[in-house]
From TrEMBL:
It holds the Pfam family SSF. The chain crosses the membrane at residues 14-31, 37-57, 78-104, 110-131, 152-175, 187-206, 218-236, 372-394, 406-426, 491-520, 540-558, 564-589, 596-613, 633-653. The keyword Transport applies. The lineage of its organism: Bacteria, Pseudomonadati, Pseudomonadota, Betaproteobacteria, Rhodocyclales. It is a multi-pass membrane protein. Residues 340-364 are annotated as: Disordered. It is found in: Membrane. InterPro entries: Na/Glc_symporter_sf, Na/solute_symporter, Na/solute_symporter_VC_2705, Sodium:Solute_Symporter. Keywords: Membrane, Transmembrane, Transmembrane helix, Transport. The keyword Transmembrane helix applies. This is Cation acetate symporter.
Length: 685
């Protein structure tokens, strides 16, 4: 403690008592539940109490100082910057989506853990210390200085806005999901309730407020993540150390999979879904006649039901089917293609949890392996190129602290990632043993609750009244949030998990909003449009842009474009293709020049977005258009090499950069130079 500054010691004291207070708060609610406090009250208290904490920190951290607003005054100690980076990093994708992906994909989901963890090694080795030595405010700042002017800066800020916006949509989607379930409001209303919590921090105090809020949010999210799985580990194995014990349960789970997948009723149900997929294929093939025939059939059935005084439920069901029938052949093709894809998915047994690169044929197994490696690559490189993460290293007092903060960030992230596989195994064990094979009439209430927000679907396709595995459809994002209910834990644990998910989504959303608004206000308005703008005007522009972006992102999230993890994967691909080649070559290759960087930052993201649009169903694409069977989430695997190749070739074919660029590279690369030239930059370091 003696080596710490008074500021760091004061921070440790504040956050120690904050942590104790939060744990006591959870204990108070647990006692309240035992005394009869309703789940609705617990959900509301968790939601609004945690948002009030973040709002309080935001209000106390409000500032009109440019350096405080953009980089928190460059005085964040390494450990606290590591906590803030971890919270900024562990978004709704890591907190909510990772356990669900591991639940459904098993071994294949480890690509996320491997890629994301490995990415911080690249950050520590290739980027963080050098960007901190550069010492400006944003990533486009570095691009503008290194590649001489506004061309590279503008291309960089456009890429930063696109990648961060896609990432932001995923976070706001997670906020809406949590608030709609635990406060019992419509999903769209939940989006804007959570949005208020996001804005109150980033709007008032910029990076200063966001940093200290993210430290507080990390405490909540890690406590919320570890407590349920520790209890569940004790319940299932008798030992409350989930990472050490889930391997034993995984062995038993493999035996349970053998039993379920070969069950006669299960096989029959999957055949029925396969038949349904064939029926949809026939309808699609015979459009528009098949649409007219189905409309006539429904009208005739409805008339017959009414004439025969059929039960009101049957009449209402037929009326709803007629009302929901697509209006045009184009709509029918889209709706039936999605229904066919869902039926095909349900007709196949899920991959075995411990099986690496599953597939029925050698070609399918090779495609699975290629996708695994492509995803690991994209996530590693994307981690090292995300603007909102790299910005955090501008906030430390110096280069040494920047390196140390990467270590602390890895440690704090490790606590969650080493536990995520255990969540998936324990949750699947509970579902397979205590849910599958039970009477549909006796299913637990959590299935109904999550069904209301569209995250759970049950269809008794064979009409036997018993739930088969194929008849249960769970959204990836529901696994973690519903695990306490799946395991029958007290509702206060469910509220705690929701509070942690909210903290994860809000912390990352704050950082992303700040990245976007800073790019628009600092890099576009101040650096390009109006270099003479006053400090006050710059902050007004930043805050107004922040509001606009937040509202637009909430609207896009309300469209539910995909699950959280998939949207985040796209953001990683775009960031990797846009920034990683330009940043790495800008630091380590003096010959890289402005034409090369601009061409590379355009070519990489362009092919990445093109591939995604061509292969993702949301944009009308299909995997029939895929290259080497690579999933759209890994589209950056094509953009990153193209970005490197383009920068190298164009740089070699055009004149080299001037001597001052070489001086800038030397300044950034080496710890001490006899003649550091502060005139290299346009602003003070």
């Amino acid at each position: 403690m003696s080596g710490l500054s008074p500021f760091a010691r004061r921070l440790r004291r504040y956050y120690f008592w904050y942590t104790i207070s939060f744990i006591s708060f959870v204990g108070f609610l647990a006692v309240g539940e035992q005394m009869g406090m309703s789940p609705g009250v617990i959900g509301h208290v968790f939601l609004f109490a945690t948002i009030a904490i973040y709002a309080g920190i935001g209000v106390m951290s409000r500032t009109a100082d440019v350096t405080e607003y953009y980089v928190a005054g460059r005085r964040v100690p390494a450990m606290f910057n590591g906590m803030a980076t971890a919270a900024d990093w562990m978004s709704a994708a890591s907190y909510i989506g990772l356990a669900g992906t591991l639940y459904f994909s098993g071994f294949e989901g480890l690509a996320f853990v491997t890629g994301w963890t490995g990415g911080f090694v690249l950050v520590a080795l290739l980027l963080a210390p050098y960007l901190r030595k550069f010492g400006q405010y944003t990533i486009p700042d570095f691009l503008g200085a290194r590649y001489q002017g506004n061309a590279a800066r503008v291309v960089g800020l456009v890429a930063a806005v696109i990648a961060s916006f896609v990432y932001l949509v995923a976070q706001i989607y997670g906020v809406g999901l949590i608030t709609s379930r635990f406060v019992s409001v419509e999903f769209e209303i939940g989006l804007f309730v959570g949005l208020a919590g996001i804005l109150v921090c980033s709007f008032l105090g910029g990076m200063r407020a966001v940093t200290w809020t993210q430290v507080a949010q990390y405490v909540i999210l890690i406590v919320a993540y570890l407590v349920p799985v520790t209890i569940l580990s004790y319940k299932v194995t008798g030992v409350p150390v989930a990472p050490a014990m889930y391997g034993t349960v995984l062995g038993n789970l493999s035996e349970k999979e053998n039993e379920l997948f070969t069950d006669d009723a299960e096989v029959a149900v999957r055949k029925q879904f396969k038949q349904r997929a064939g029926d949809y294929a026939a309808k699609i093939e015979h459009l528009p006649d098949s649409l007219d025939a189905e409309r006539r059939e429904l009208i005739e059935r409805l008339n017959a039901l009414r004439l025969n005084n059929a039960p009101a439920r049957d009449i209402a069901h037929t009326e709803r089917a007629l009302r929901d029938l697509p209006r045009t052949p184009e709509q029918a093709r889209h709706v039936w293609e999605r229904a066919r894809a869902e039926a095909i998915e349900r007709s196949r047994p899920p991959p075995r949890h411990a099986q690496a690169h599953p597939g029925d044929t050698p070609e399918q197994r090779e495609a699975a392996r290629n996708n695994f490696l492509a995803l690991v690559f994209v996530l590693m490189v994307g981690t090292a190129a995300l603007p909102h993460v790299l910005m955090r290293y501008y906030t430390t007092p110096g280069v040494v602290e920047a390196r140390k903060s990467v270590f602390w960030a890895l440690f704090f992230i490790f606590l969650l990632y080493v536990t995520a596989p255990a969540y998936a195994v324990f949750a699947k064990w509970e579902v397979y043993n205590n849910l599958i094979g039970t009477s549909i009439a006796m299913l637990p209430n959590w299935l109904v609750s999550w069904g209301k927000v569209g995250m759970v679907n049950i269809e008794d396709i064979n009409g036997d009244g018993i739930l088969q595995l194929a008849e249960l459809s769970l959204n990836t994002d529901v696994i973690l949030l519903a695990t306490p209910e799946i395991a029958g834990l007290p509702y206060v644990i469910s509220g705690l998990v929701a509070a942690g998910g909210l903290a994860a989504a809000l912390s990352t959303a704050d950082g992303l909003l700040l990245t976007i608004s800073n790019a628009l206000s600092h890099d576009l308005y101040y650096k390009v449009i109006n270099p003479g703008a006053s400090t006050q005007r710059r902050l007004v522009i930043a805050k107004s842009q922040l509001l606009v972006v937040a509202v637009v992102a909430a609207w896009v999230a309300s469209l539910r474009p995909d699950n959280i993890l998939f949207m985040v994967g796209l953001a990683f691909s775009i960031a990797a293709a846009a920034f990683f080649p330009a940043l790495v070559l800008g630091i380590f290759w003096k010959r890289a020049n402005r034409p090369g960087a601009v061409a590379g930052m355009l070519a990489g993201p362009a092919v990445t977005i093109y591939y995604f649009v061509r292969t993702h169903a949301f944009f009308g694409g299909s995997m029939d258009n895929a290259w080497f069977d690579i999933s759209p989430i890994s589209s950056g695997v094509f953009g990153v090499p193209l970005g490197f190749l383009t920068i190298v070739l164009v740089s070699l074919l055009t004149p080299p950069p001037p001597a001052e660029v070489g001086a800038l590279v030397d300044y950034v690369r080496y710890p001490r130079l006899p003649a550091d030239d502060p005139g290299i930059f346009t602003e003070s370091k």
